[in-house]
Specification:
This protein has one domain: TIM Barrel, CATH 3.20.20. Helix content is 44%, strand content 15%. It is built from 11 helices and 9 strands. Strand 8, helix 10 and strand 9 form a beta-alpha-beta unit. It is globular, with a radius of gyration of 16 Å.
């Protein structure tokens, strides 16, 4: 079975760069424009696309992504619409990693087995559930892993290194999503002064690639993070630009 996420990080490393993981809220500003934006990101060099499923209570997200989710919901965009979009993206971009980014209620409401079957059919490589604790993820993993879908753990700024190791255990074709700042998503002008040391510490104990996200909005920040991690994640900056311009083209980062 193709391991697109593993291959994406290996390809980036071979090119002496960090893997570019791009987040979009699917359905914003419309389902068509979010699909076109994903196409543009792939063309612009994104290695992995995170497909954000709009949710009514996105408590981990800042104003930009929260507003985008509400607008997508207002238009009637739901999980099945995102999975249908993912299937179209998979047909067009057979080598690009696709991560479904969501909250657990969305998955649970569909039914774990039905969700896993639908995600596998859509060509999803991995799932990231913002609010699913380490201790409670096994019920999801036992449904998705046999279908070739992995899981992306979130690593908070205060997560002990022992828990980082536990979070990586049993996962393949995955990466650790290291949250750069305390609080919610959103572009920042500066990243925490202790972030790079934190990334170095996690790298020493991680069996998986690590990618840093929350707050990255410039090339300088991406390059600084990539010197200490295997990749970087950009979300709010892209969603904001897409909302303002209606499309993504040219340089993907400000």
């Amino acid at each position: 079975m193709k391991k697109r996420i593993t291959e994406a990080f290996a390809k980036a490393k071979a090119g002496n760069r960090g893997a570019f993981v791009a987040y979009l809220t699917m359905g914003y500003p419309t389902i068509e424009k979010s699909e076109a934006a994903a196409d543009a990101l792939v063309a612009g060099g994104a290695d992995i696309i995170e497909l954000g499923v709009p949710f009514s209570d996105p408590f981990a997200d800042g104003g930009v992504i929260r507003s985008a989710a509400y607008e997508a919901l207002r238009q009637g965009v739901r999980l099945d619409d995102v999975l249908a979009l993912a299937k179209r993206l998979r047909e067009k971009h057979p080598d690009t990693g696709l991560v479904l980014f969501t909250y657990y209620n969305v998955i649970y409401s569909k039914g774990l087995a039905r969700f896993a079957e639908a995600a596998a059919d859509a060509g999803i490589d991995a799932v990231l559930s913002v609010d699913l604790p380490l201790e409670e993820r096994d019920e999801l993993l036992k449904e998705i892993q046999p279908r070739g879908i992995s899981y992306i753990p979130l690593i908070a700024p205060n997560t002990p290194l022992e828990r980082v190791v536990e979070s990586a255990n049993g996962l393949d074709n995955s990466f650790l999503y290291v949250i750069t700042v305390k609080g919610i998503t959103g572009a920042r002008t500066e990243l925490p002064t202790d972030l790079l040391g934190r990334l170095d510490s996690i790298r020493k104990v991680s069996t998986l690639p690590i990618a840093a996200g929350f707050g990255i909005s410039t090339k300088a920040q991406a390059e600084a993070v990539s010197a200490h991690a295997d990749g970087f994640i950009v979300g709010s900056a892209l969603v904001k630009r897409l909302g303002a311009e209606g499309e993504l083209k040219g340089e993907m980062l400000p």
